[in-house]
Design a protein that fits this description.
Blueprint (H helix, E strand, L loop, with lengths): L1 E6 L10 H4 L4 H13 L4 E6 H4 L3 H9 L5 E6 L4 H14 L4 E6 L6 H6 L5 E3 L4 H9 L13 E4 L5 E3 L35 E4 L2 E2 L10 H4 L2 E2 L6 E2 L3 E2 L2 H15 L3 E4 L8 H12 L13 E6 L1 H10 L1 H7 L2 E9 L3 H7 L6 H14 L4 E8 L6 H14 L3 E6 L7 H4 L26 H13 L3 H13 L3 H26 L19
Parallel strand pairs: 1-2, 1-3, 3-4, 4-5, 8-13, 13-14, 14-15, 15-16, 16-17
Antiparallel strand pairs: 5-6, 6-7, 9-12, 10-11
Length: about 525
């Protein structure tokens, strides 16, 4: 049996170069490792078209070269249409192929996905155990009813959703991701800010239940078998996590580690033990120089907590150099609406002040959410002023995006954009009631794309006066790319062309090649 796990061509974020726009497809590599261990007779492959700069014509030629028994795709909302395009292409070339869909979109859009006719079965939640069991019965759909964590169409055309799969309790029991199935040297090659890039995880799940996020639900604990979920965090041991970092450093020459955990610093015991292990290893020199660079998503309240415990200092010494913090909102109404707890304005201020004053080598990226029901132009202005007072190195204003499965998608939203390819967290896709969708898009273009002297002034100040070379390079890169996007958008307006709705997704030059 030949099983292909595929990430098809897709658009990219315009602030990144091709060398750092795409991280290795960790989810597919985890699935492949589980299949290889449990089903050694199965021929398992992972193809990453973006990582290899394969366009659709190249991909079609490669797919046509040899029969495929099972195709696996796993996508987010914004790229789901490209996953379905790949599935349709494979069905055309190999009609007998069974297409399996997973990720964070398809399990929350079951009817829409199965209605396409190009997906045979959907894996819901964690995939390692479910996918292996499915492959054992891939040619006998009658047995699919007994496999937890699936959705498919029965013989009469009815939709069948089997009970939720219990969570994998011991993440140490999972095999290492199958990094050898891709050309890992391509990731971060030529990038100065993210050299020798690799993606990895130490935990799954989250401590919170934010209404705009699907990850906590996707990795959460089912309470009633189907539907109701509560947040749950699980982690590998610190020793296992260190071993993976050390192995990737030694065997593959990886230097930049992009942790994909929804909350890297959720568990202080893990952070303390992992940092201690790193500091005692060859990955940190006797003079305290960290030979690896780590970027992660952190919670503000956990930053404050870990500073008091002395853990944050260890993490920075171990190589933490980029912190992405969900600041979200400064107003109680907004925090209640998004469902984020223990993250008020004072906590966010304290967390950023700690990093700026005590750990200036850490690049701080913040994110704010605008476009909640009832939000007005005055709310956006207030958020922008708050951002300036907090002083992160860079901050994104993210429009509320009602991805399927989230509480935001279930709420009462005004004028929702039906084109899911716009759901990139940087394009307004719904109105607020006080602002219609067209007004939201105009405001976002005005704030993010038009040249902003205060924003450029901050970046220029960093480029000229910042002592950390990496922070200078990042600021220069953002300044160059931001200016290019702004100029292109202004020229489009001057030529009386309609504004691009999806201006925060760029089609790579190789996309159709």
């Amino acid at each position: 049996m030949r099983v292909l796990l595929l990430r098809p061509p897709r658009y990219m974020w315009p602030f990144n170069r091709d060398e750092s726009a795409f991280w290795p497809p960790l989810g597919l590599l985890c699935l492949a490792a589980a299949v290889r261990r449990e089903l050694p007779d199965v021929r398992i492959e992972v193809w990453d078209a973006p990582g290899n700069c394969w366009g659709w014509r190249t991909l079609a030629a490669r797919l046509a070269a040899e029969p495929i028994d099972v195709l696996g795709i796993g996508e987010e909302t914004v790229s789901a249409h490209e996953g379905l395009r790949a599935a349709a292409l494979v069905k055309e070339l190999h009609p007998g192929c069974v297409v399996v869909a997973g990720g964070t979109y398809f399990p929350y859009a079951i009817e829409q996905t199965l209605d396409t006719g190009v997906v045979d079965v959907i894996v819901r939640g964690e995939g390692e155990v479910t996918f292996v069991e499915l492959l054992r019965s891939i040619n006998d759909p009658q047995n699919w009813h007994a496999i937890p964590g699936l959705a498919f169409r029965g013989p009469a055309g009815q939709t069948v959703v089997t009970p939720a799969r219990p969570l994998i309790r011991d993440l140490d029991s999972l095999p290492r991701p199958a990094y050898d199935l891709i050309d890992l040297q391509r990731y971060g090659c030529g990038s100065r800010n993210h050299p020798q890039l690799v993606s990895l995880e130490h935990s799954r799940g989250c401590v919170d239940s934010c209404g705009f996020c699907i990850l906590w639900k996707h990795m959460g604990e089912s309470l009633n078998g189907n539907g109701q979920v509560r947040p749950r965090v699980r982690t590998k041991s610190a020793e296992r996590s260190f071993e993976e970092v050390h192995w990737l450093y030694r065997e593959y020459g990886r230097r930049t580690f992009g942790w994909v955990d929804p909350t890297f610093n959720a568990i202080p015991e893990w952070s303390d033990q992992w940092a201690e292990r790193m500091l005692r290893s060859e990955l940190v020199s006797p003079r305290g120089v960290a030979w690896t660079l780590h970027t992660a998503w952190l919670r503000a309240d956990a930053i404050v907590r870990d500073e008091k415990l002395g853990i944050l200092r260890k993490l920075v010494r171990a190589g933490l150099r980029q912190a992405v913090i969900g600041l979200e909102r400064d107003d109680p109404r907004g925090l209640t609406t998004v469902g984020k707890h223990h993250n008020d304005a004072e906590v966010c201020r304290e967390a950023i002040a700690i990093l700026r004053e005590k750990y200036p080598q850490v690049y701080i990226i913040g994110s704010l959410i605008f476009g909640l029901p009832g939000d007005t132009w005055a709310d956006l202005q207030r958020l922008l002023r708050w951002q300036d007072r907090l002083g992160p190195d860079y901050c994104f204003i993210i429009p509320l995006t009602p991805n399927p499965g989230t509480e935001a998608a279930r709420g009462s939203l005004d004028e929702v954009d039906p084109d899911l390819s716009h759901y990139n967290f940087h394009t307004p896709v719904c109105g607020t009631g006080a602002l219609d969708l067209r007004s939201m898009q105009a405001l976002y273009w005005r704030i993010m794309l038009r040249p902003s002297w205060p924003r450029m002034q901050r970046l220029l100040r960093t480029v000229v006066f910042e002592r950390c070379p990496r922070k200078r390079r990042i600021s220069l890169s953002l300044l160059v790319h931001g200016t290019r996007i702004s100029v292109r958008s202004l020229l489009s307006r001057l030529r009386a062309q309609p504004a691009q709705v999806n201006c925060y997704s760029r089609r790579p030059s190789w996309y159709e090649t």
